[in-house]
Amino acid sequence: MASFPNSVNENEIGKAKFIGELLVPVAPFDQKSGRETWTVAFAPDGSYFAWSQGHRIVTLVPWSKCLKNFVGECSNGAGPQRLSRQNSEGGTVVPVGEPREHTIDCGDVVWGLAFGSSVPEKQSRCVNIEWHRFKFGQDQLLLATGLNNGRVKIWDVYTGKLLLNLMDHTDIVRDLTFAPDGSLMLVSASRDKTLRVWDLKDDGNMVKVLRGHQNWVYCSAFSPDSSVLCSVGASKSVFLWDMDKYSLIRKLEGHHNDVVSCEFSPDGALLATASYDTRVIIWDPHVGTVLLELVHLFPPPSPIFAGGANDRWVRSVAFCHDGRHIASITDDRMVRFWTIDEKSPKAIAPLTNGLCCAFSTDGSVLAAGSRDGSVHFWACPKSIASLQHLCRMALRRVMSTQQVQTLPIPPRIRSYLSYQDL
Predict the structure, then answer these.
(1) What residues contact residue 186 under an 8 Å CB cut-off, 6+ apart?
(2) Domains along the sequence of the chain with CATH
(3) What pTM does this model have?
(4) For residues 133 and 3, which has the higher predicted lDDT (pLDDT)?
(5) What CA–CA distances, in Å, run from 179 to 24, 215, 268, 391?
(6) pLDDT tens digits for range 74-100
(7) Per-residue b/e over 59-82, b at no fewer than 16 CB within 10 Å?
(8) Where are the WD repeats (predicted)?
(9) What is the pLDDT of residues 285-328, one digit of tens each?
């Protein structure tokens, strides 16, 4: 079996531009802790990059400095960014210098990472807000870490201070995700078969337990408007949750093996899920239909073979912020860059033992973590989005598929706006 169809010449596929890597320093860490980089994350404002480099350690790197070291100059030509921070206990705003690199010892193996930033207008759901211990300012930047012992620890990114220690899971916390609306609602996905919703503006109190998975939960992702949560795990189903009612909307069926990664497109109109069945499926989350399949093994395997231990497990998928590019990490030692209007990769790059990936905030760089604790970076293939695509994204940010279908417009345009032409 091959990684590409017979109609595609691998030598003619573009090669992604490698721009740098971050390696784990040689140090006598506790050997009972793993070396794997299970997760990588970029801060919402692009100020920091974080990765779990193994051995209980999370490293925070100023992204502009990191990128400058890779390419020789800042991509935007700007000087060092000046930051200010508000003390999380309600103190005054204290000016600080440029972001600095530092490490955090989390006390156990780190499986999940997520950055969160606050919007003061987003109030806590708790009535007694005056009793809160922490008051997060607009420039507050938090890092949540999910640990091997089932705990979730919340850190102040600028100081490295531990703010909260959330204890309720009974097994590994595999993934974390903040609501993108600035409400500091945090969802943790665990091997204890549950998702738990935490309100950090209410001192980290747990709001709800989402039950429905019959096995480990691997990953979760919010829609851009924070109204829907997608969760996937050690089953063939994709779960969609209403985060206003904390209820299950629907389950999407189509994968033949464990589903391990998921992410919404920037306009919320598409949902990408990666599975051990060698495929990435692009769904319409509003109606639950399959729009596109990105295949990593040819000829496509039968459901029985795809459901077993094949050598093309897809480990991670990420949506670029331009809404057009998708990256996937697979066990065939390859990173693939796709576009939503093509069924074969636009660019590829070699990567041994890749585990996770994430695009930078501006979508220009892909970071991928591996089993040896290192992180590798590639430039996202450059292309100019059409005016039609930009208009489609703007419209789909505020309209669901059902609303688009009711518009009095020609069927061809309606199909384009619904992404049915993929």
Answers:
(1) 114, 116, 144, 152, 176, 177, 178, 179, 197, 198, 199, 200
(2) 10-386 (2.130.10.10)
(3) 0.89
(4) 3
(5) 30, 24, 13, 25
(6) 444 443 333 333 444 444 444 445 678
(7) bbbbbbbbbeebeeeeeeeeeeee
(8) 136-165, 166-208, 210-251, 252-284, 314-348, 358-378
(9) 999 999 999 999 888 888 888 878 777 899 999 999 999 999 99
